[in-house]
Design a protein that fits this description.
alpha/beta, Indigoidine synthase fold, 2 domains, nine-stranded mixed beta sheet, two-stranded parallel ribbon, binds pseudouridine-5'-monophosphate, binds manganese (II) ion
Length: 302
């Protein structure tokens, strides 16, 4: 794997010295937010991780190289090119690497790169899951399979209700992925703190999260952990507003026959259009909140 992987010098040094490192994804940069807020947010996330005592490793594919840790210029490049950078899930990596292409890593491929580099904690916004209507479309995010097989702790704000959250939890249960609520018994729904679904366990401290991760490793599990961290109260959105936007986005996706890997980016962009700046602001704040917790957990693991 090392033949294909570049670990940034600062990240490599931290890993060798047993210091805390936090992985970050790049689909959120190229596909999740508009320019220039995407670049600004990505750089702020790195700063927050540093302020909390860890080294950030934003992951991507650049010129066919798997990257754990990007320069400011590389982050700027991914942000400016936006949708022109292909969204890279597990099935895309071999092609991008062979062709020397660029790719924005999803939760799946960021977990893969983190595991190759030896990074244990990864912060993001929301994960993919089982889509509504998956009983006929079979649209289930590769993120769930990756959580089942790759030993990385993913810290997110839950999942958007563009997904079927109940089926997503069922799938994770089948795959043996622990779903932990940080300071909550309820699965957060990204823009809102509540979803009506229970998580498996409530966990209240970074040390406790570190202990669960350690136990999982020491018992020889192959898969990862999902930590769901609710958006801070002051940034959470009105449930009725966001539910209406999601319903409208789902209707438009259906009417336009959107499918496959375009589904999630299409729905995210529509929701952003419908709700205007509000949802973007919430989105940014919940990522900051996850970055901070991830740095604390990474420190607790060291
Ligand atoms: N959900 C969000 N924001 C995101 C994504 C999902 O609320 O940015 C991105 C992540 O990179 C995630 C990917 O890994 O979309 C899932 O895509 P798919 O559903 O096609 O597997
Ligand atoms: Mn899909």
């Amino acid at each position: 794997m090392d033949r294909y992987l570049d670990i940034a010098p600062e990240v490599k040094q931290a890993l060798d010295a047993g210091k805390p490192v936090v992985a970050l994804e790049s689909t959120i940069i190229s596909h999740g937010m508009p320019y220039p807020q995407n670049v600004e947010t990505a750089l702020n996330v790195e700063r927050i991780i540093r302020e909390n005592g860890a080294v950030p490793a934003t992951c991507a594919v650049i010129g066919g190289r798997l990257k754990a840790g990007l320069s400011k210029d590389e982050i700027g490049h991914l942000g400016k090119k936006g949708y022109d950078v292909p969204k890279a899930s597990r099935r895309d990596l071999p092609v991008l690497v062979a062709r020397g292409g660029d790719g924005a890593t999803t939760v799946t491929t960021t977990m893969m790169i983190a595991a190759m580099a030896g990074i244990r904690v990864f912060a993001t916004g929301g994960i993919g899951g089982v889509h509504r209507g998956a009983e006929t479309t079979m649209d289930i995010s590769a993120d769930l399979e990756e959580l089942a097989q790759t030993p990385v702790m993913v810290i997110c704000a839950g999942a958007k209700s563009i997904l079927d959250l109940g089926l997503t939890l069922e799938y994770l249960e089948t795959k043996g992925v622990p779903v932990l609520g940080y300071g909550t018994e309820e699965l957060p729904a990204f823009y809102t703190r509540r979803s009506g679904f229970k998580v498996d366990y409530r966990v209240d401290t970074p040390e406790e999260l570190a202990a669960v991760y350690r136990a999982q490793r020491e018992m020889g599990y192959s898969g990862g952990l999902l930590v769901t961290n609710p958006i801070p109260e002051q940034y959470s959105m009105d449930k009725a507003v966001i539910d209406r936007a999601i319903a409208q986005a789902l209707d438009e996706a259906k009417a336009q026959g959107v499918r496959g890997k375009q589904t999630t980016p299409f729905l995210l962009a529509k929701i952003k259009d419908i709700t205007g700046g509000d949802s973007l602001d919430s989105n940014i704040q919940l990522v900051y909140n996850n970055a901070k917790l991830a740095a604390q957990v990474a420190a607790a693991l060291c």
